[in-house]
Specification:
Number of strands of chain A: 12
Helix content of chain A: 25-40%
Main location (chain B): cytoplasm
Radius of gyration of chain A: 21 Å
Number of strands of chain B: 9
GO molecular function, one term (chain B): RNA binding
CATH class of chain B: Alpha Beta
Biased composition (Basic residues) (chain B): 9-18
Low-confidence stretches of chain B: 1-19
Strand order of the largest sheet of chain B: 1-2-3-5-4
Keywords (chain B): Cytoplasm, Exosome, Nucleus, RNA-binding, rRNA processing
Shape of chain B: globular
Largest interface: A-B, 42 and 45 residues
CATH superfamily of chain A: GHMP Kinase, N-terminal domain
Order of helices and strands of chain B: HEEEEHEHEEHEEH
Strand content of chain A: 25-35%
CATH architecture of chain A: 2-Layer Sandwich
Structural class of chain B: alpha+beta
Strand content of chain B: 25-35%
Biased composition (Basic and acidic residues) (chain B): 19-28
Mean pLDDT of chain B: 84
CATH superfamily of chain B: GHMP Kinase, N-terminal domain
Order of helices and strands of chain A: HEEEEHEEHEEEEHEEH
CATH class of chain A: Alpha Beta
Distance between the termini of chain B: 62 Å
Largest sheet of chain A: 6 strands, mixed
Oligomer: heterodimer
Number of helices of chain B: 5
Chain lengths: 294, 248
């Protein structure tokens, strides 16, 4: 936990009140965002995202599995977040478990939409291989390498980048299998399907300190928060998920005001992230050299 | 189409599509879209606890016990304010298919967040209050039922709170917003909004939303929830008053 003196606390609070934060940012400014993709060769897609000193990695692994009998036309996605003790000693031996569950649940809520699949950032029906028989199971794993606040936003950005980086092998289904048998499948090593990530939302956490709220809070600033609201917004400006995180109660009008503030911020953040991801993708392709050409 | 593996699955599949077919669908229990299920609340459900409550909203049945305040575990760091330890469990027989209850791992932390803004934690420093919730029958809107019932149990245990916490959820199916969804309605929802609210202070302690929403819809759904929470708050208050007057 952050140990701050009374003077430091006052400095942070006062700065936020005057719209000039300790690192020179304004209330609605993000820290510099750095994105690298294709950082984990073992995964189908991966990305590392840094917001200032916050450093997270997301990886996407695809495995063939059986669809849920209740939803035969859809693949499955599981999102897990791991908080490594290398990020903070408090995460050691199950200490990060509570935070991990909280982050995983929040990401699932924001990315997977309603139970019927409406409004999902990841289109589950595109993971279908053969209805009711074979589908892709996507395992999305987030890892917190270094933590300096705003983990949820960074993880969501990393997942978006990792999904853009993901190539799902093309699958040929053997014909002629009887309906009761599990059909034979052929996984191609050469042909990959790209994933459409234009619908994947970003998450913007607004942290309320005093009467004002800020985006992309550092852990020092988070320690001064009274409450926080994470809003997930897609490129159409629609809200795809909302979670109030801890702290004191809020008036309904304040929450609605925060939602509109988040939508406003997202109009700048989404194009910024998209261009960063494209740049990272171009760089990772160039870095692979000429011998590997997907 | 794969043939359903069990009776329980068939029941779900039949009802999943139905509401989407036309706009004039009727809810399975005949309620209006903006009508909550009748609530039945009782305090003092478990003898051994410092406070407890039982709540029934239609077929959703939950029981919450509150223990403590007790001394915090030695391994815990010193804390000038009290701790709230929340745990939500589903009885294995609470859902149609056994084993489905593991979908709700985040309920404990959601309950904690809904309550921590209401409880005066500084009134029991260095100690822990345990809140154990058990869902006996999962009939939809489980989390709101657990939150409302837990705040009632805390009040029964005499833990100081700023206000009772009442909670309600709204499901969005097609173009309609329906309040207090039953399990089969939750299964086919396009989005949902859950609010925990302190009616007298008019403060929201917890709010979660899934699915795709426009701002106008969020506004509408929040208003619906707040209205339902205020009404539920009254019922909870009456329940507490009755419990006190019958014991003296």
């Amino acid at each position: 936990m952050v140990g701050l003196s009374a003077g430091e606390k006052n400095f942070i609070r006062g700065g936020i009140e005057q719209d000039l934060r300790a690192d020179g940012r304004q209330r609605q400014d993000f820290r510099p965002i750095l994105i690298e993709t294709g950082v984990i060769p073992q995964a189908n897609g991966s990305a590392r995202v840094r917001f200032g000193a916050t450093d997270v990695i997301a990886s996407v692994k695809a495995e063939l599995g059986k669809p849920n009998p209740l939803q035969p036309g859809r693949g499955k996605v599981a999102i897990y977040v791991d908080c490594s003790p290398t990020a903070a000693p408090a995460f050691e031996r199950g200490g990060g478990e509570e935070l991990s569950t909280e982050l995983s649940a929040a990401l699932q809520k924001c990315l997977l939409g309603g139970k019927s699949g409406a409004g999902a950032g990841i289109d589950l029906s595109s993971l279908m291989v053969l209805e009711g028989k074979v589908c892709w199971d996507l395992y999305i794993d987030g890892l917190v390498v270094s933590s300096d606040g705003n983990l949820l936003d960074a993880l969501a950005a990393a997942i978006k980048a990792a999904l853009t980086n993901t190539g799902i092998p093309k699958v040929d289904v053997g014909v002629g299998a009887s309906p009761d048998e599990q059909p034979e499948v052929n996984i191609s090593d050469e042909e990959f399907l790209q994933f459409d990530t234009s619908a994947v939302p970003v998450i913007i956490t607004l942290t309320k300190v005093g009467r004002e709220y800020i985006v992309d809070a550092t852990s020092d600033e988070e320690s001064q928060m009274s409450s926080a609201v994470s809003v997930s917004v897609n490129s159409h400006g629609k809200v795809c998920g909302l979670i109030k995180r801890g702290g004191a109660g809020l008036d309904a009008s304040v929450i609605l005001d925060m939602v509109s503030a988040a939508r406003h911020v997202s109009q700048k953040l989404i194009p910024l992230l998209d261009s960063e991801i494209d740049a990272a993708e171009a760089a990772s392709l160039a870095g692979q050299g000429s011998d590997v050409d997907p | 189409m794969a043939s359903p593996a069990s009776y329980a699955l068939r029941r779900h599949q039949q009802q999943r599509r139905r509401p989407l077919q036309d706009d004039n669908w009727v809810r399975s229990d005949g309620r209006g879209f903006h009508q909550c299920r009748p609530a039945f609340l009782r305090t003092g459900a478990a003898r051994a606890a410092s406070g407890s409550a039982y709540a029934e909203f239609g077929s959703t049945k939950v029981i919450v016990s509150v223990f403590g305040p007790r001394e915090s575990k030695k391994a815990m760091k010193y804390s000038g304010i009290g701790r709230l330890n929340c745990n939500v469990n589903f009885a294995t027989f609470s859902t149609a298919t056994r084993g489905q209850e593991s979908d709700h791992k985040d309920f404990s932390s959601m309950l904690h967040k809904a309550l921590e803004g209401a409880v005066l934690l500084e009134s029991f420093p260095k100690t822990t209050v345990d809140v154990f919730a058990l869902v006996l029958e999962s009939g939809g809107s489980d989390l709101p039922a657990v939150i409302s019932c837990a705040s009632l149990a805390l009040a029964d245990a005499g833990i100081m709170m700023y206000d009772l916490v009442a909670s309600a959820s709204v499901s969005c199916i097609g173009n309609s917003l329906i309040i207090d969804p039953a399990a089969e309605e939750e299964d086919c929802q396009d989005g949902s909004l859950t609010v925990a609210f302190m009616p007298s202070r008019r403060e929201i302690t917890q709010l979660t939303l899934t699915g795709e929403w426009s701002t106008g819809r969020i506004h509408e759904a929040t208003e619906l929830c707040l209205d339902a929470c205020s009404k539920l708050g009254e019922i909870m208050r009456t329940c507490l008053k009755q419990a006190v007057s019958s014991s003296t």
